[in-house]
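Troubleshooting log. The previous structure file for this entry was overwritten by mistake, so regenerating from the original sequence record. Sequence copied from the archived sheet and checked twice against the printout by T.R.
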Amino acid sequence: MTDTTRKLRPWAFYLLAWTLVGLIYFAQNVTRRFYWDDPNPWQDLRYWLAAIYLSALFTPLVVWAGRRWPLEAPWPRVLALHLALSFVWAATKLSGEAVFHLVWYRFFPVDPPIGVASEFSLVFLFGLHTSLVAYWVILSIQAAIRNHRLFLERSQAALRADLRAAQLETQVAQARLGALKAQLQPHFLFNTLNAIVVLVRQQKGREAEETLARFSDLLRAVLADMETQEVALARELEYLKLYLSIEQVRFSDRLRVQFDVDPELLDAAVPHMGLQPVVENAIHHGVGQRASPGAIVISARRAGDSLHVTVRDDGPGFSTSGKSAAHGLGLGLANTRARLKQLYGDVAELRTGAAPAGGAEVTMIVPFHLAAAA
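Regenerated output below.
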């Protein structure tokens, strides 16, 4: 859009708006004259044209005054000023109408002739009130448009502020999740390395090499999903099997693991590395506390809109004193609880309790939905 077009747009709008107003009033006047069988119902067309288009010509003055002294300013002073300006504007416009009519009469004389004083008197008598009303109507419309624009700007600013706040909240939540996840991964990595060191000290070179190889596979799998907060249950079980293969080298035939997972749930989303600390807890505080072989059962089922993943061991179970008191309060489970809260809010839970047949049972409850990759 060129500068000339931009400058002419307001004038076109004023002309169109006043033309519509003039047509309404002129149609009303013509209808009245037709009703009274006036032989010349169109005789007032010249007067209406002069009044309407002179009003359009002088409208920018009202707009300028409205911008210079907006109605939203302190009322007493602004109202008094605009009251005076409305009389000045009306007098200017009506004087223009009177001059137009007098020039018209020079080319198209009327009988009897109309003098200058008479013409000005008639124009002011019949047009002063409507001109004053027109001034205030223009001023009010301008104020309404200005307030509407201000309202839209404030609404958009509020929406932008809300969006920035939501983005910031999301970033903070992601940072917290990343911190919790960063705590979990070194925790189990260091534990695994310590297990390898123990095997080396026991001069079990073959077992240490095998454990180190499996640890490498596990580390590679974990790093592949480092930036992911959720993975499919099938992927999480792969991590567990790699981790359990390392633990089975340590415990030999003392550790038995059973999986009871519905194949239809393998695409369900679970927290990345969310089950590993639960299983690690079951091994160290369950099977690790037994002299005889121990078992761990990992099961998954769907209950309504929730996914329940349970890790059950046949160890000594939870107690209120001694080392077992820390069974559900270690870094792994504490961070898992915190991650569930951060990821899903109050709809997620990490339940700890006694298994029906003895031992400990930890259940991770998360909202059921498919993982993004699935």
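Residues 3-162 form one domain. Archived copy saved in two places this time.
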